[in-house]
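Q: I'm building a small set of examples for a reading group on sequence design. Run inverse folding on the following structure and report the sequence directly after it, with nothing in between.
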């Protein structure tokens, strides 16, 4: 069976990290760790949620792609991807839509894309505050061009993305389960 990378993308607060954890718990999908210069949120752990970097240490790594999102740097490395594939046949990675487009172009049919969306984005603010994000960080995030951009599924991802509506978590799980059944069926047949 070939390795598959599930790229999870969508706007801040739509549930990307939650979906990634669900895939790990339910399906043993290993999450590819990425690097960031963003400060840690309460409860986040270095090497578990991200590799937290200083601007200098961030610049010293080698990335498949890297982006600036709401004023901070984020990047993903080939080494992290190889580490996940050594552990499991399926891996996931959480990316902004710019990163997802790069992965779709570079890795072709080795990836599958989940695009997360919610009907009423105004409730995202409450979700971010409930998650424990500082108010100032939430304001900065929701005002960013990247956040606004990621509220729409980019045209380049339309042919490869499965849209998951995450207004309601049990309903989202059903969509993810259907996606995994199709993906595992397809990967077995490869
Ligand atoms: N392109 C790219 N995006 C990343 C990477 N790591 C994280 N991101 C994205 O950066 C954005 C901001 O992430 P984060 O600060 O954790 O905020 P969150 O989306 O609110 O959880 C999200 O869209 C992440 O998916 C990466 O290595 N490359
Ligand atoms: N369907 C849902 N209904 C209510 N809250 C949710 C739902 N999905 C995720 N959340 C919560 O919303 C917050 C943001 O989710 P998270 O997975 O961190 O988003 P992202 O990684 O896309 O920024 C978290 O506190 C999470 O527990």
């Amino acid at each position: 069976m070939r390795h598959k990378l599930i790229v999870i993308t969508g706007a801040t607060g739509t549930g990307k990290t939650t979906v990634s954890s669900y895939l790990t718990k339910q399906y043993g999908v290993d999450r590819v760790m990425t690097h960031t210069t963003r400060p840690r949120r309460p409860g986040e752990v270095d090497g578990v949620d991200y590799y937290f970097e200083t601007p200098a240490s961030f610049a010293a790594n080698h990335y498949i792609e890297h982006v600036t999102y709401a004023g901070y740097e984020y990047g993903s490395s080939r080494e992290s991807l190889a580490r996940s594939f050594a552990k499991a046949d399926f891996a996931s990675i959480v990316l902004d839509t710019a990163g997802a487009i790069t992965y779709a172009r570079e890795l072709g049919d080795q990836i599958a894309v989940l695009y997360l969306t919610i009907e009423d984005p105004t409730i995202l603010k409450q979700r971010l505050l409930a998650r424990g994000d500082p108010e100032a960080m939430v304001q900065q995030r929701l005002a960013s061009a990247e956040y606004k951009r990621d509220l729409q599924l980019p045209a380049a991802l339309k042919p490869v993305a499965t849209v998951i509506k995450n207004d309601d978590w049990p309903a989202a799980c059903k969509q993810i389960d259907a996606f995994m059944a199709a993906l595992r069926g397809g990967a077995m047949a490869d």
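The longest strand covers residues 4-10.
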